[in-house]
Automatic annotation (TrEMBL):
It comes from Termitidicoccus mucosus. InterPro entries: EamA_dom, EmrE-like. GO terms for cellular component: membrane. The chain crosses the membrane at residues 20-43, 49-68, 89-107, 113-131, 138-153, 159-180, 192-213, 219-242, 254-271, 277-294. This is EamA domain-containing protein.
Length: 310
């Protein structure tokens, strides 16, 4: 009886932990949508992209120091994989630029739908960079997902533009960011990756920031920049905590909740209602991504079962 009760308690505790992890992921992706809304607002104010992104990363580094306190906890700075950290940081910095420019011209739902191609790109590249086996069903799901991207971007129409290509480039950068994060998770603490991303941002952007300095003529712009840096730090911190409560295979599908929040904020703040092609294409991308996550979960489960049977 005691063993049965103990197993039941463990399962209940596991469900509660997973539930908390899922809730944290949903909060994080909603914050990411708010960040996109702030970026879109700042882009409408005719401010230089390097200025805005430089201010964001400078403030983010300040918050990172306050949270991690590396002078008290030097272990967060220790790594044997500095090169991977720099690649990861470079992906994030360049993605910040592509997002900023693309959101000037694309609606938030369209941008989010295209960027959701990142897991599909990861699925392709994982076979080469991570040595993962990719089955035919996953390949078909990836192809269908990219057809969804084509539905959103509509090549050959007036909608297809440099902004759409930049959104797709953002997906590629996010894919490499995700793969380097996955590699680093086997060796370093999440806080270490957090620290080096913030550090690289300030090393790259702070020296050139004075050459692109603009003094905003409105306090709302200063407020938006301040809130953007706080939310960036908060969202990535929440992601780190969420993955301590639940495995990535459980959490991954809930990243797609960002499309719902993107539609909501786009309608509320910018009066931009997604057209039918964005909704159809976005749905195809999401469905394909969910299937890829499902197949990855099945593959890992089969691998564990085969190992335990030996």
């Amino acid at each position: 009886m005691k063993n049965g009760a103990s197993d039941k308690d463990n399962k209940t505790e596991g469900r509660h932990r997973y539930g908390l992890g899922i809730l944290l992921i949903i909060c994080a992706v909603f914050i990411f949508s708010i960040m996109d809304a702030l970026v879109k607002y700042l882009g409408s104010q005719s401010l230089n992209s390097i200025y805005i992104i430089g201010i964001r990363f400078t403030l983010t580094f300040f918050w990172t120091l306050l949270i991690l306190k590396p002078w008290k906890h030097p272990e967060v700075t220790r790594t044997k994989h500095l090169g991977l950290h720099l690649i990861r940081a470079a992906c994030m910095i360049f993605a910040a630029f592509t997002v900023f420019v693309a959101l000037k011209y694309l609606s938030m739902p369209a941008m989010t739908s295209i960027v959701f191609a990142a897991p599909l790109i990861v699925s392709i590249l994982a076979g080469y960079f991570l040595g993962e086996k990719i089955g035919p069903r996953r390949i078909v799901a990836v192809i269908i997902g990219f057809l969804g991207v084509l539905v959103v971007t509509r090549p050959g129409t007036s909608f297809f533009s440099l902004a759409a290509l930049l959104a797709l480039l953002t997906a590629v950068l996010n894919a490499f960011y995700s793969m380097t994060t996955r590699r680093l998770s086997d060796h370093d603490r999440p806080e270490t990756a957090f620290f080096y991303t913030a550090l690289a941002g300030i090393i790259v952007l702070l020296p050139i920031l004075p050459f692109f300095w603009e003094t905003p003529d409105s306090w709302t712009i200063w407020l938006a920049l301040f809130v953007l840096s706080v939310l960036s730090t908060l969202a990535h911190g929440i992601l780190t905590i969420a993955h301590k409560y639940a495995p990535a295979s459980i959490l991954a599908p809930f990243y797609y909740a960002q499309l719902i929040s993107a539609i909501f904020l786009s309608v509320i703040f910018f009066k931009q209602v997604p057209d039918k092609w964005t909704l159809i294409g976005g749905s195809i991308v999401v469905a394909s991504g969910l299937y890829v996550f499902y197949r990855e979960h099945v593959r890992k489960k089969e691998k564990r079962e085969s190992q335990s049977a030996r």
